Amino acid sequence: MGICEGRVVVVTGAGRGIGRAQALELARQGAKVVVNDPGTSPYGAAGDGGPAREVAEEIRARGGQAVASCDDVTDWDGAERLVKTALSAFGGLDVLVCGAGFTRDRALVAMTEGDWDDVIRAHLKGCFLPMRHASEHWRERAAAGHPADARVITTSSGAGLYGSAGQGNYVAATAGIAALTHVAAAELGPYGVTVNAVAPGASRDRVAGTAEAGENDAAALTAWLGSAGSRHVTGRVFEVGEGAISLATGWRQGPSAGGDKWDRADVGAAVAGLLAHAPVPVPVYGFA
């Protein structure tokens, strides 16, 4: 029996890459999976859902249970339909894995408004909307006296945690997802929901030629986070890559200096003192 036996799971962006690996592993661990992917990039264009259907068929061929969804998760109604698909097909929703998105890499000086809007929409809005509709379902359950034992697993990135040259839109979107994860964990906890993020170090995996291994590691972590055994873990960001799982500790208040009233002549000296006692920032990917 798998660690997710009988749990109903929605995976967005599941037609390829990490999302596909997550859907397959969750099914292997006994979950009933709604495989979501519109089959298009960028999100917002009409798609045939072909990749989602292929992954769902692969799960069923292996003896698992799965249905396909080609709903656009960056659309309010589409995200609502996705949650309703899980409820109608399998009678509930236990785990939401938000992985929809794509990259459109350009230096900031060359980035267009469309480059920015499309990537932010796919990743950040595409994470928020399914979470919004799923949380409404879980809130209603809690109000009726049946709190869930549910999970949300978002997808950030190593780039979002540390920065990456030529990926300002992707960095901003996935950094926003990490921050949203922290807030959602606090807000959804009373409904019986944990919220954690998986941050694949994709750029390093590609350089090392181990993208598939990185996908499998992310999928294994996702399956555990989706299981009943992870109910004590929430509000965390896990980085996965190069054969390792690490815990990202995020922003914390560092050295400080205070006074009743600051004079601008004193600010420079105060900042110099703060910098002298603070760690050096992690270098942005692509820069020494």
TrEMBL record:
Domain of life: Bacteria
Domain Ketoreductase, residue spans: 7-201
Keyword Transcription regulation on entry: no
Pfam family name, one: adh_short
Organism: Microtetraspora malaysiensis
UniProt keyword list: Oxidoreductase
Membrane-crossing residue ranges in chain numbering: none
Homology family: Belongs to the short-chain dehydrogenases/reductases (SDR) family.
Statement: the UniProt record of this protein carries the keyword Repressor: no
Name used for this protein in its record: SDR family NAD(P)-dependent oxidoreductase
